[in-house]
Known about the structure:
Keywords: Cytoplasm, Hydrolase, Metal-binding, Zinc. The chain is α+β, with helices and mostly antiparallel strands.
Amino acid sequence: xxxxxxxxxxxxxxxxSAKVTKIVPSGVILDRTAFHPRGGGLESxxxxxxxxxxxxxxxxxxFEGNEIVHVLEKLxxxxxxxxxxxxxxxxxxxxxxxLHTASxxxxxxxxxxxxxxxxxxxxxxxxxxxxxNVENKDLxxxxxxxxxxxxxxxxxxxxxxxxxxxxxxIPGVVxxxxxxxxxxxxxxIVEIEGIDxxxxxxPHVSNTEEIGSIEVIKVENRxxxxxxxxxxxKP
Length: 235
Ligand SMILES: [Zn+2]
């Protein structure tokens, strides 16, 4: 049975109930989950599953084949069919949401204004990093400054689903770093109104105001035509 992906529909679910459908050596599979698995450039959520008085720490969530496995510290006492309560480590998740939406704004400015592409990136709760195909190091702090101006405007971030054929008509909908599997019939679209629109699987804030202030940690020279930007969000 395929797990219902609650996190794809609503990034703000912190607690949910679910049924254990399968136990595997590394953890459990649920009939539905709000835990975002590792992928799309984001670290996985962590948290806990509660059964009666027992707490099972969720240390990682990941795809194994097409199954979403919740890796648990211990499995003893858990059985298939158990009804559990899932709790997301919200502070950690919310920081990744803020950084993730920030990364889309940064990518959009880089591409539309400076013709710069992001060739790879990663988001952790503490910071994000992105690789740009640019020569000029000074361009990146400038892009972050412009991203802050946009974030401050309090722009709505919309998440919706479109049939593949329709989604593919949107210019620039698939960015290099985050490709959608072509076999997917329905694409999840994340739109920062008037700024950026792309196919994307990860959690986002619902308004750019929630990002706070984006701050550059450092810019690294990674060789010819490759600069790496590290940034975080505050407060
Ligand atoms: Zn994304």
